[in-house]
Amino acid sequence: MATALPDSARSTPRRLTRRRTFGDVVTQFFLPLLALGLLAFAGWFVWKNRVVIRQPSPPIAPATNPFSDAVAAAGVVEAQTENIAVGSATPGVVVEVLVTVGQQVEPGTPLFRLDDRQLRADLAVKRAAVSQTKSDLMRLEAEPRPEKLPVLVAQVNEARAAVAREADALKRSEDTFARKVTTEQDVIARRETFAAAQAALEKTQADLALLKAGSWEYDLDVSRAGVAKAEAEVARIETDLDRLVVRSLVAGRVLQVNVRPGEFVGTPPGQALVMLGNIERLHVRVDIDEFDIPRFDPGAAASAVPRGSLQERYPLKFVRIEPFVVPKKSLTGDNTERVDTRVLQVIYECDPDGRPPLFVGQQVEVFITAAAG
Predict the structure, then answer these.
(1) Residues 134 and 222 placed together within one structural domain of the fold
(2) How many CB atoms neighbour CB 76 within 10 A?
(3) Mean pLDDT over residues 6-31, rounded?
């Protein structure tokens, strides 16, 4: 029979004790510390990489308007004669470039030359044809040839002698026929022979007269026309040869050379092989927005500020207005951009006059005093 335990023994739980291991230390102390460290690192990382919206000042301050009320526009520096894009009238392979960038040229200065070997060969053939036609004309004009006259005179004398001989034979034949010695058939044969001798005499006399008359005037005209045609062919080829040497038509400076020896050039419109322009005086082409046209005054003061050099200000002098309003040109180079703004182009003259030089194609900001109204 089991022994009953006292009440004090049943109410007090028994506590089990064991030795603490390394896993207990890691679980109770290291993991919580690691979790707190990762939480702190996550907060620092998020704070460090947060999006900060900054508004830095521009590296170069924009151009300022010097007038209280002005029309602002964009302008491009160009040559006084405008930028002349020289192309080729005929396609071919470039064999020689005769100018360099920055070189001063005058009207007629060769710029570059195309391959002309085929045309030079054709020219030699046409010149030979000219020589041949001229020789034929000289031969006709020199007629009659003196050496031919004695030959035809001798033929005429021979024909006369034959006529005399046949006339004598015909007379004897008729006499013998009258005495019944020969037949009528013999007389008829002699008469036919005499007629043939007379015809031969007339032919040789006509040949002699034709030779003495010289060449027919119409034959001379045909020969002269052949000479003129051959000379015209030579002149045409010489013109084609001259066109293979592209020359400058104006005085100016070479701004750009876009062709090299060995390149094939065609005749597409707008192909700028060599860019020319007179830059002794520079012009600024200003695009005025169509909404600012009513405020534009041609006689008002104007100035230009080049981009990147805002401390310099160049006074402008009005030259002319191009009255045709054109679509605004995009300078971004993006072929998908749509430009629906139209501008009035105004030309101003710009003289650096001791200031830093401006270059053709450089963009400037232009400010023009607005018209009152």
Answers:
(1) yes
(2) 18
(3) 65
Q: What whole-number distance in Å separates Cα of residue 91 and Cα of residue 115?
A: 10
Length of the chain: 373
- Whether 326 has a pLDDT exceeding 60, the answer reads yes
Residue 49 has pLDDT above 70, yes or no: yes
User: What digits encode the pLDDT tens for the residues 53-103?
Assistant: 777 666 666 666 666 678 888 899 999 888 888 988 889 999 999 999 999
Q: What pTM was estimated for this model as a whole? A: 0.61
Instruction: Give, as one character, the DSSP assignment of residue 144.
Output: S
Same domain? 253 vs 110? yes
323: preceding bond cis by omega (within 30 degrees): no
Query: Using an 8 Å Cβ cutoff, are 94 and 263 in contact?
Result: yes
Enclosing domain of residue 344: 70-80+279-369
Are 284 and 352 part of one and the same domain? yes
3-state secondary structure of 122: helix
Place of tokens 């927005």: 289
Q: How far apart are CA 208 and CA 144, in angstroms?
A: 10
pLDDT of res. 236 = 95
Which residues fall within 8 angstroms of residue 369, CB to CB, at 6 or more apart?
A: 67, 69, 70, 71, 297, 300, 301, 302
Asked whether 339 and 327 are in contact (CB, 8 A), the reply is yes
Whether 276 contacts 252, CB under 8 Å: yes
| CATH number of the domain within which 159 lies | 1.10.287.470
Please, what is the Cα angle at 364 between 359 and 367, to 5 degrees? 140
Number of domains in the chain: 3
pLDDT at 143 (0 to 100) = 81
Spell out the long-range contacts of 5-9 with Cβ–Cβ below 8 A and sequence spacing 24 or more: none
Shared domain check, 170 and 107: no
DSSP assignment string, 28-92: IIIHHHHHHHHHHHHHHHHHHT------PPPSSPPPPP-SSSEEEEEEEEEETT--EEE--SS-E
